[in-house]
Amino acid sequence: MQPEDSDTTAPTHSPAGDHPDHDSPPSSHHSGEEAGCCIVGIGASAGGLEALQRFFDNVPGNSNLAYVVVQHLSPVHKSLMVDLLSKHTEMAVVQAADGMLVERNTVYLLPPAKHMAIEDGRLRLTAKDAGSGMSLPIDIFFTALAQDQGSYAMGVVLSGTGSDGTRGILAIKSAGGFTAVQEPETAQFDGMPRSAIATGQVDATLPPDALPARLIEHARKALSRARPAPSQRNRDKESDPLAQIVASIRSVTGVDFSHYKLATLLRRIERRMNGAGLESMEDYAALLRRNNAEAVSLYKEMLIGVTRFFRDEAAFKALADKVVPALLGNRNPRDAIRVWVCGCATGEEAYSIAILFAEAQERLGRTLDVKIFATDIDQDSIETASLGEYPRSIAEDVSQERLARFFTARGDRYVVSRDIRRMVVFAVHNIMRDPPFTKIDLVSCRNLLIYMDTPLQRKVLSLFQYALRQGGFLFLGTSETLGELSAEFHVLDGRNKVFQSLRAGSYRLSRLLVPTVAAPLVRHGDDSTGHAQEEGAAIDEAIGALMKAYVPPCLLVNDQMNILHVFGDASTILKVPAGEATLSALKLLPSSVAMVAGTALTRAFRSGDEFTLSNIPVKDRDGISAVSLRVKPFTVRKTGRRFALVLVDPAATSFLPVPDSDFDLNADAAERIRGLEQELMSRGENLQATIEELETANEELQATNEELLASNEELQSTNEELQSVNEELYSVNAEYQAKVEELTEITNDLDNLLRSTEIGTVFLDGDMVIRRFTPAAAGFINIIPRDVGRSITHLSTNIDYPDFIGDIRGVFATHRPIERHVRVGGERWVLTRILPYLTDKNMVAGVVVTFVDVTAAKEAEHRLQTVLNSLPEHIAVIDRDGAITMVNAAWRNFGEGNGAPALDRCGPGTNYMEVCRIDDEIEGAEIGRAVHEGLRKILAGEIGHFTIEYPCHSNTEQRWFLMHACRLNDVTGGVVVSHINITNRKLMELRLNTSAITTTGIATGATEGAA
After folding, report:
1. CA–CA dist 38, 175 (Å, integer)
2. 816-831: b or e for each residue (b if 16 or more CB lie within 10 Å)?
3. Is there a catalytic annotation at residue 297?
4. Is 724 an active-site residue?
């Protein structure tokens, strides 16, 4: 049988998809050459050019592989990839054409505006639909490659954005092929590599230059294993490594793969051997015997957990049109509709059927209780299905209308709605070993039978026929048939494999649960398979006849008192009750026997002793008045789990010697009731906790509006990425790369500048949130790297600056810088500047705060001030604009002695040039103009200094001063003005002049008298 479709992603946990046509290498595809050839599909998108160049730089010219490169190309630009890649490989590089035969040592490139597939080793091109929206050329080719080449397909995903290639990787793995991905750390864009790795189905993750050697080595091993093996007819089971491998899996996991198809087993075993680096199956069998973890890994390898919603749209449409309405239309509202999804994997198919029933009920206006039992052999998959959370990629399979109605977006995942989740019950179930459900209206088992041999297929189909009601429906995969049970079903839709049961189950449950005897595992070339299967069927019939004739009804139960197996014909004792299906022995046994059996099992498990009870009355079974009960507990040594055999023998036909029993019904019943009460109390507490968890989940589900909006934006972004042109990305990427390198250099320079400077700097955004700071800023503000992103108002400072935050807000409001000299720790001085942060468009986008330690300058200024204060002269320093910047104590004392107005006119901050500009009406105006003119000439550089004497009398005394102005020859410019009190000199000069005048007068009078 063939797998259902090309990607072989069966919605079952079963061995991976076989394709019998691919059990031999596809040598016919390669120009008549005898040896086979593997085809490597390579998917790349943004940033893929560099990865492809590195890949083909390391591919030898005689690798004997064919390479098909699929990229996201612009439909309106001519591709230059042929010329670009030809420089990096000795192989021929050609652009693919429709019908072109794929040959070894050749590289084929996807043309623009085309989708590419492959059939019978020939490339098939189709026009790309410009209006189709999302385009996934890599997935399309990989899926076709998996279908065409089977286990010889090889897929490689290189740099790119989005998730294209992920589903193709799954298809190749399901077909038994080899998959590899570029190591995300080496990719310019890691979206596609990480999406592929997340599937867990990638065989190798390597840099591009290491991938070719890995591919060539795998191809060599795959082609060597494809050669026909020598006949194993004469090898016994003990020496057959394949049988040993199957036995190892069975002993560790309890799952028997001996009835699965040989090609499936070999392919999965070879894959694990390849991962373990082993060449022979004997070595791998030895590894499994000493390593249980490897046995579990091989068991997981045998299972397919890959499925999708509404897989095979036509089949689900047939189900929705022909089955669901029929079940809803003729059903009593009080009766439940029971559906069994066997091999549900991660639950997508079960939820899909639940959605069909929900839509049909709404359409027909009927509300019925629909209960879907979804079972699988793998516990991990059941747990995943129970969560009901799926990635955003399900939007490719589920319509937007269904996503909106039956799913809720949560982060980057979709969650199944509560109403749909409530319809489905998930449970672990092994179809080969566990009893089936009963009174089922619809059984869905798609693509599970194709992995089983004929006897196991017959047994599973018989279980389904037993489980179905009369008129119930069976839904199989499109490659599966009913075989010998065709007469038991009516074909409702042959194309989509929908069947209707003609009658209720005709097989006894005890007969169906007899283990199928495994036929000997036979290798390729052994023609005894049919004979072995015939012998196995005969052994099955013989075991059934013996049990029916000689073995009393016997139940194998676990420590949860659930029936695991039934030996003999227990139909006269067991009865399936109405309602939800159950395997509990206490519910299937007669009520009068169940109470005794429960007590006996409890005592047996507790003490480990065997119990035999006789003459137990049976009130609700016709023809049986009493039974004898024997309970024999035992423990499995490997696992430590406890089980018990319960022999139920009618008293009239007892096969067992029954000793006297000391069983006290009343005492044990009381003990049993106490145990049940404690169990009920515990379950009540668990139920309350579950209710609280469900209420919390319900609150989370109600907050969906913003998540849906984010989902729409994400989908739109993904669509734009998938429609992006790879050729355009090369040129744009080159420009961006240059800018990134330039930006990196600038960033490095800036980082080194900020790290090396002793100026503390803090960058704030418009909300006063810290964007960046220099290490020196930590000396002034208590800031650490983790404070980036926090508001500066949350931090304390070490500076004596009470209005620090207020000044920052002021700069935000006025866009004017502020400077303050503040103290740090009482000893140091800091010049704090708060400046607006300007963008390239001269817009204010924040604030820059700098802290410059000016302690040395302040100390020098203090020393200078001390020196100036020690001088008796009145000294002032004037800047180049004429403003007074510094005065000494004599100047200040003189101003204070002359009153506040005088100090205001000559203190620091006043413009001395303006002070000297006196109106003509005021006394001393002429001197003021002379001083003003002299200072102007010094500041203009016309003279170096000037001196002037002037009177400055007060109400109490006469005073004269000598003003001397001298230019400062430094970068700041300015003038030093000193006023020297020359009153004493002037008074002495006046006295001398007066004396001279008096002397001259006396002399003149004497002269006149003499005359």
Report:
1. 14
2. eebeeebebeeebbbb
3. no
4. no
Helix %, strand %, coil % of the chain (to 5): 45, 20, 35
* 869-988 homologous superfamily: PAS domain (3.30.450.20)
| Mean pLDDT, the chain, whole residue set | 78
Indicate whether 656 pLDDT > 60: no
CA distance 15 to 912: 99
In the set 6, 14, 45, 444, the catalytic residue is: 45
Known catalytic membership, residue 45:
yes
pLDDT digits (tens, 9 = 90+) for 474-513: 998 877 888 778 888 888 888 888 998 887 554 444 445 4
Check: CATH 3.40.50.180 for 25-225?
Answer: yes
| Mean pLDDT, range 948-956, rounded to an integer | 80
pLDDT digits (tens, 9 = 90+) for 706-732: 566 666 666 765 555 555 555 456 545
CA angle 675, 679, 684 (to 5 degrees): 150
Contact 65, 104 (CB under 8 A): yes
Rounded to a whole number of angstroms, the CA Rg of the chain reads 48
Enter the CATH code of domain 313-512.
3.40.50.150
25-225 and 551-663: same fold?
A: no
Q: What percent of the chain has pLDDT over 90?
A: 11
From the list 728, 739, 552, 531, the residue with the least C-alpha distance to 657 is: 552
How many helices (H) and strands (E) would you count in the chain? 31, 34
Check 5, 18, 148, 164 and give the catalytic one. Answer: 164
- CATH level 3 topology of 757-853: Beta-Lactamase (3.30.450)
Active-site residue, from 72, 218, 932, 979:
72
How many other β-carbons are positioned within 10 Å of the β-carbon of residue 806? 10
| Extents of the domains making up the chain | 25-225, 248-302, 313-512, 551-663, 667-721, 757-853, 869-988
Whether 239 shows a pLDDT value over 80: the answer reads no
- For domain 551-663, the question of CATH label 3.40.630.30 is answered with no
